[in-house]
Amino acid sequence: xxxxxxxxxxxxxxxxxxxxxxxxxxxxxxxxxxxxxxxxxxxxxxxxxxxxxxxxxxxxxxxxxxxxxxxxxxxxxxxxxxxxxxxxxxxxxxxxxxxxxxxxxxxxxxxxxxxxxxxxxxxxxxxxxxxxxxxxxxxxx
Length: 141
Prior knowledge:
By secondary structure, the protein is mostly helical. It has helices spanning 32-44, 53-76, 91-109, 114-117, 120-123, and strands spanning 79-81, 87-89.
């Protein structure tokens, strides 16, 4: 059994970009609205920076892979003919699981999940607590 340490606290990067970058050429056209939604959300919370483009890219592509894998499962089912009448697990099942894991991890890192968004540091619209205020973040209900 492995034990994992505590997740690192997320920090708002001050001075986020004012404009959303154009969608990269390799992002599928059907994913353009998702790219723009994520970027606009991060920009609105003053968290969008050039350094985040890789994480946004990975999130959008994982989301696309997840959708494509689900489409394959919907079309062919969870089991497929492996030859000679023997059924085997559809490879899209593995792809779906990996993509879902990546989407969940990246969405938390980008502050897109309800749990990560509820943290004061991920809201991006508040000033840091005054020095010496030990309970500043705890008192936001």
